[in-house]
Request: fold
Amino acid sequence: MQSTSPALALALASAVLCTTAQAAVLRVPQDFATIQQAIDTAQAGDTVSVAPGIYTGRVTFGGRDIILESTDGPATTILDGQQKRAVVVFRSKETRATILRGFTIRNGRGDTGGGVVINGASPTVTHNIIADNSACNGHGIAATSSGALITHNEFRHNVKTYCDGGIGGGAIAIIDGVDAARKKVPPYLEFSDNLLEDNENTYGGGIFINGAYKAQVLRNVIRDNHADDGGGYYAYGDTYTLVADNLLYANQATRGGGYYALAFPNNPVLTSLVNNTIADNFAVLGPEMYLEGSFGQIHMSNSILWTTHGQSVGLYCLSSDGAPPHFNTNIIATDDIFVTNGVCEQVLYRKGNSSARPGLEPDYSLAPDSPAIDAGTDALSAGQPGDLLGNPRIVDGNGDGVAHVDLGAIERPRAARPAPVVAR
Reply:
């Protein structure tokens, strides 16, 4: 074996020192008085570590691929905008290697994005509490032309307090615009495993989405949000979105308590809704879902729409062209006598759709005798890693020895097969 030359050994040692230097930890307030000072000093790969406290002023990443995280979590580490400006800004082509983790982000204010502004950037925003922010669009977060990963956050009480206009989004507004959306390249935006509660806007109390090419909205709990249209979720035009394994309940609106979509022939809503549970929402028209315009390119499969409290027409359809949506193997039911209206009546008893009561437990899992167990079309749920709770999809939930996907957001666990009877 040849020995290493002194020159090569020195070069290797220098490389190790450089690598180590690139992974520095910059502490706030021990090493830097403010978070922004630490960020401005940081290099790619560094971590800015923030001790508990209340920190005011805007935080801007400036295109750096760094980690900004708290040491003790969001309950004790607060970024406060003091109702003066947006709190955190990503607008310099940050990538998913830029991570914002473990803060409460509150009292932000802006035109597009009150708590967090993401514009032409694709950061990772995770394990934060985003609360009490206000904007014209996207009180909590506004993500424009973004491939961000926004996951495991809580959005609470983000409401409109000063803006009379805007397009929507209590918790989040996801916006690309048609031309920008069609030119996008990966990564595509993922909004997953978040809790949206008690948010409000004119359109989309929880989520407003427009033109988000190939975005994925996965495994979120969306509850107790409020809007004029789309209490939980509002989709407008050209979205190309996968909406899967979400639970929407107890949202309120005038139209579309749970979900609202508005589409036109030249600006369609191209959405796939798969394995969602939309139940117990409230609205004057369409408590669970309201579809308006040219919605023939909306696909819904393996899902549950369940309307209670004596409300009728849980699925309300106002078509401009007479084309029904594409619905396959869903339960669309109400405790009243009227389930749906208009062109949507054409799909109610076709392609495996049913108006049977879904048999939901109080936590929206499936009761042992639910007709939704093993009732879905497996191919339509292909590629899903798990249900709302992270449990595996496509298991034998009724114990008949054959596994099929369930309807709704929560897959019933594998049932024990009865023991064989042995003759004596």
In short: Residues 8-20 have pLDDT under 50 and may be disordered. The longest helix spans residues 6-22. The CA atoms of residues 118 and 137 lie 12 Å apart.
